[in-house]
Design brief:
The complex is a heterotrimer of chains A (289), B (324) and C (424). Chain A is an all-alpha fold and 289 residues long. Chain A contains twelve helices and no strands. The N terminus of chain A is likely disordered. In chain C, strands 1, 2, 3, 4, 5, 6, 7, 8 and 9 form a nine-stranded mixed sheet that branches. Classes of the chains: A mainly alpha (289), B mainly alpha (324), C alpha/beta (424).
């Protein structure tokens, strides 16, 4: 058998056995927090299902009205909604896959291969996590304009194709989980480096890679600043399209909030499917995206 | 030696045999050496190349742009030295934006950490339906800040907003969320907290669970109650995590843009710059006024602010977590 | 160099006939036989073009029109800036608002010259003048204008005991800002509602009656020293705050939009394009009407142009489309669809415009009213390259006093002066 694998962060968790189940205060507080977390989304749907005149009336409605689909149709008519959704899917998927691939490659090298300068380079990677690269927007924009990429999805995808955090995360993971023996065995077998990576490291990295991909996906999907600057109304991502709804002279708030609801649905679906993975990803040390 | 039972290598069906004859000398061996020597650099190069082009270069080039007249449409103009810095530092918008940015940052990070730790402590008990609660607190994380802002700016509308209506029920005068600077900061900080508190609670939860349980047991024997245990064991043990969360939220928090941008439909941070942040100011200079030179100067100043804050942050959190 | 609609058909054919025809149709785009040309048109708010595009595509089968209609004028402006800076990404036809037209006229090379004998005399003089550079290059074709009238809630006026029919009301409020404010003081004494929605909205009306408000044609910024500007600023803030005539709503804000559902204010300045906005916000509210008068004489608020960025692949086809869209017949269609009032005098003779009425506004003869209002406009104020930025600054100054209550008129003016000094 493989010598005991140690997964970082997954250290054996002794539950606080012997202690009683928590009382209603704990549940009450948690329940209140949860209600606060859900309420804004509910409100968004609620107003999005009425017409905007409802906001000026008191008391506010408590139950959804029947206008959601009509408002949603207005949203789709008002902004290139399907285009934006497709763009968001393309950008988020491409960026996630690319980050996972490049981060795993680099992580594999940092964790398992010996080469000159490995230590300092890794320190450098970690240090760049603290660099607010968003502040380079002006030159980045100039560069994109020179390349003729403004308005194109490539302008959003390319700068995000690999992240320092991803590299660091995969390095940590592979260092802890991938036994050197496996690699040596593959090498002795005559496998090239890239084969070793592909057949040994990548499969071993799968759990961490999935989480990295997931977080990258969410972060890319919700990203606004750079896409807002470099894309335009014709070819937006979902967040960019969403802000256009508010930026109109005649603002129909039930339409705006129907749009906010609509734009949130895809990630809610993702949350239902992969919420557990997100939770355990954070608990294993994922950082803010 | 190792008896490999894992899938990946088994698929290749062979095992290292001690008596395998040496083959493939010469070219292939030399290639093999190159493979060993170069591959690591090749594998890490995507990150370094990309960082150099889209991270480091733009940051440095920002300094260059900041010393030139640079119109968005007309491009590079004359070298002006530190003129843009002089202008920006001499203009009230910069200082007001700085004030707002720091105020929003403090209003979001401090309460957020406190609530998140409390929440983590609540979650760190023998709950029924554990996964449900953990997922529940994370829900807001998947809502884009843009959507959060659209929803909350409606909730916080000055006259026809739900928050003021609710306050009215308990006899509180309507708060001027879009007029009063502090009130607008609270509203914006609420959006940030909405999205990140649960997320940070899970980070703290993980850290709490890594605290050796025998510490609590001996405290229990010494007669320390739960609250006492929380402050004398949990909080100090969370120190590295608190620092980590504080640093990451400093870098992100000081660059805040999405929430204030969508707090009203103009996106300029209010008529009196009540909630104009430094990044909004940067955007306004660069993309509304077309002045890339000044925008770059703001970018560099913001960079310095972030570095300074990161250092202060480190010192303060160390301090706080040390006392006890 | 220009080809009209007729020439367009030729251009389409020429590309199809022989081989690559390198000499003839360089701008025809695409090459290849019977090529479809796709034109992109970027507008903002409501231009009322949807059906016209369909019609044009039916009449010109080789043209496909893609329409992006998204933002406020503000965002459209930023987006166009981006495209021009990058020299890529602009639509074939970009709509430009009058308030930032001059800003873009600083870069005439970025736009195609639209001047052509065919369109001479099509627009009101001041409309064309504003889009013509010093050396005679025409940057944009006029679409609509925003002649101002006063929209009012007849029911609130009547309840307060004042004349509420169109003529009586117009007579009561008179035709100067003083008489309008005086009527307002009488009104607020007799009613719970405010007199008008927002000081910032009135400002648009007042500033559009100052011939040289912020910048001189010589390029000097006079906003902070111009006594006319200061006088108007003081007048509108005195009426709004001291006399309490304003409902203190920030124009276009959430609260402003919602307030139409209540009895918050009785009158507002309404250019033609505002009718649709009032109708949308005030859905279900009865009592709106329009008076054929505006304080201080005539005034124009807003209105747009169609420009053709030079970077496009189909400049000629785009010019042809823009010419067609801005012809009087088409502009009348747009007016009937979305209330964008024509800038083409020929349209003012057309019964379709003259006889049009608006049911939401008590069947007011809106066509005739706005024709009268348009004829009352004597000039378009000179708007320099910094107009947009300066006007934003003074709007902010007014909002700080009227809506936020965070500053008094004097200190807010001081801030405005400092903002103006920062331009450059």
């Amino acid at each position: 058998m493989i010598p005991t694998t140690t997964v970082p962060g997954a250290a054996t968790r002794t539950r606080r056995s012997g202690l009683n189940r928590p009382g209603f205060v704990t549940y009450g507080l948690l329940g209140a927090f949860l209600a606060g977390s859900v309420f804004p989304l509910w409100w968004s749907f609620l107003i999005g299902s009425h017409d905007s005149t409802v906001l000026a009336r008191t008391p506010f409605p408590l139950l959804p009205g029947g206008n959601f689909l009509r408002n949603a149709a207005t949203v789709i008519d008002q902004v290139p909604f399907w285009r934006a959704t497709l763009n968001s899917i393309i950008v988020s998927t491409t960026v996630s896959l690319s980050v996972v691939l490049f981060a795993t490659l680099a992580g594999f090298a940092f964790a398992k291969l010996r080469f000159l300068g490995r230590g300092p380079l890794l320190v450098f990677v970690v240090a760049t996590m603290a660099v607010p690269t968003q502040l380079g927007v002006v030159p980045l924009f100039i560069v994109m304009a020179r390349l003729g990429w403004t308005g194109e999805l490539t302008a959003v995808i390319v700068p995000a194709m690999v992240t320092a955090f991803g590299v660091f995360w995969m390095t940590q993971y592979l260092r802890g989980t991938l036994p050197d023996e496996l690699i040596e065995a593959a090498r002795v077998d005559g496998a090239s480096m890239i084969r070793t990576f592909w057949h040994v490291a990548l499969p071993a990295a799968r759990p961490a890679a999935a989480m990295l991909g997931l977080f990258t996906f969410v972060a890319t999907w919700t990203n606004f600043f750079w896409p807002f600057i470099v894309l335009n109304a014709k070819n937006p991502t979902l967040t960019v399209a969403l802000q256009q709804l508010q930026a109109a002279y005649f603002i129909d708030y039930s339409m705006v909030l129907a749009g906010a609801t609509l734009a949130t649905i895809p990630l809610l679906v993702l949350f239902v499917v992969a919420g557990r993975q997100l939770v355990s990803g954070i608990m294993q040390g994922a950082v803010k995206g | 030696m190792s008896t490999v039972t894992d899938a990946p290598t088994r698929t290749r069906g062979r095992r290292p045999d001690d008596d395998r004859p040496p083959r493939r000398i010469g070219l292939s061996q030399r290639l093999g050496t190159w493979d060993v020597k170069l591959s690591p650099y090749l594998y890490i190069s995507p990150f370094f190349v990309l960082f150099a082009i889209t991270g480091l270069f733009p940051l440095l080039y920002t300094a260059y742009v900041s010393m030139h007249d640079w119109d968005q449409i007309m491009g590079q103009g004359e070298f002006v030295g530190l003129e843009h810095f002089r202008f920006v530092l001499g203009h009230s918008d910069f200082w007001v934006s700085l004030r707002n940015t720091i105020s929003i940052f403090l209003l979001s990070s401090v309460p957020q950490v406190l609530v998140a730790i409390t929440l983590a402590a609540l979650l760190d008990s023998n709950l029924r339906a554990r996964t449900f609660w953990r997922m529940g607190v994370l829900l807001p994380y998947v809502v884009a800040p843009v959507a959060v802002s659209l929803i909350f700016s409606n909730l916080f509308a000055d006259r026809f907003g739900l928050v003021n209506a609710a306050l009215g029920l308990i006899g509180v005068e309507p708060i001027r969320w879009h007029s009063d600077p502090l009130a607008s900061h609270v509203a914006i900080a609420t959006m940030v907290n909405f999205r990140w508190t649960g997320y940070n609670a899970l980070i703290f939860l993980a850290a709490m669970q890594a605290i050796p349980r025998d510490l609590y047991e001996s405290a229990w024997i010494d007669g320390a109650g739960r609250v006492r245990q929380f402050f004398s064991i949990t909080v100090p043990m969370l120190r590295p995590t608190i620092i980590f969360v504080a640093i990451t939220s400093t870098i992100g928090g000081l660059q805040i843009f999405d929430e204030p941008r969508l707090f009203d439909q103009y996106g300029r941070g209010g008529a009196g710059s009540q909630w104009k942040t430094l990044t909004i100011y940067l955007y306004e200079l660069g993309w509304t006024q077309s002045n890339f030179g000044r925008a770059s100067a703001v970018a560099w100043l913001l960079f310095l602010v972030i570095v300074a804050f990161g250092l202060v942050n480190l010192a303060v959190t160390r301090r706080i977590a040390d006392t006890r | 160099m220009l080809i009209g609609v007729a020439g367009l058909a030729l251009a389409g054919c020429a590309g199809g006939g022989d081989d690559d025809a390198p000499d003839g149709q360089a701008g025809g785009g695409g090459g290849g036989g019977g090529d479809q040309v796709t034109l992109t048109v970027a507008t903002f708010n409501e231009f009322g073009y949807e059906e016209l595009f369909e019609q044009y595509m039916t009449e010109n089968p080789n043209i496909t029109i893609e329409h992006t209609k998204a933002d406020t004028a503000d965002n459209a402006r930023d987006a166009l800036r981006n495209s021009l800076g990058a020299n890529a990404g602009a639509a074939d036809i970009e709509a430009v608002e009058v308030d930032w037209l001059v800003e873009f006229m600083q870069y005439p090379d970025k736009f195609a010259d639209l001047s052509s004998p065919e369109v001479e005399g099509r627009w009101l003089d001041w409309k064309v003048d504003a889009a013509t550079t010093d050396d005679g290059k025409l940057i944009g074709y006029g679409t609509d204008i925003g002649p101002e009238a006063i929209c009012y809630r007849a029911d609130l006026v009547e309840a307060a005991g004042f004349p509420s029919d169109r003529e009586g009301f117009a007579e009561w409020i008179g035709d100067s800002w003083d008489s309008y404010f005086a009527a307002g003081r009488e009104f607020v004494a007799a009613s719970d509602a405010a007199w008008y929605d927002s000081a910032g909205a009135l400002w648009q009306g007042m500033t559009n009656q100052i011939e040289v408000p912020y910048e001189t044609p010589e390029g000097e910024i006079v906003a902070a020293t111009n006594p006319e500007v200061r006088a108007a600023y003081d007048a509108v803030l005195k009426a709004s705050v001291e006399d309490g005539l304003s409902a203190h709503l920030g124009q276009w804000s959430t609260d402003w939009a919602q307030s139409f559902q209540g009895d918050e204010f009785a009158t507002m300045l309404c250019p033609g394009w505002m009718l649709g906005i009032i109708e949308g916000n005030a859905a279900g509210v009865e009592g709106w009407d329009i008076a054929n008068v505006v304080p201080g004489g005539g005034g124009n608020w807003g209105g747009s142009y169609l420009t053709v960025p030079a970077q496009g692949d189909h400049v000629e086809e785009a010019i042809a489309l823009a010419q067609w869209l801005t012809a009087p017949e088409q502009q009348i269609q747009a007016f009937l669809a979305k209330g964008t009032f024509p800038s083409q005098p020929a349209a003012y003779e057309d019964p379709a415009l003259v006889d049009s009425t608006n049911a939401f506004f008590n069947d007011a003869p809106t066509g005739q009213i706005f024709i009268d209002r348009a004829n009352a406009v004597e000039f378009q104020p000179y708007k320099g390259p910094n107009y947009f930025v300066i006007n934003t600054a003074i709007q902010d100054a007014i909002t700080r006093v009227d809506v936020d209550g965070s500053a008094d008129a004097e200190s807010s003016w001081a801030q405005f002066v400092s903002d103006v000094e920062a331009i450059g």
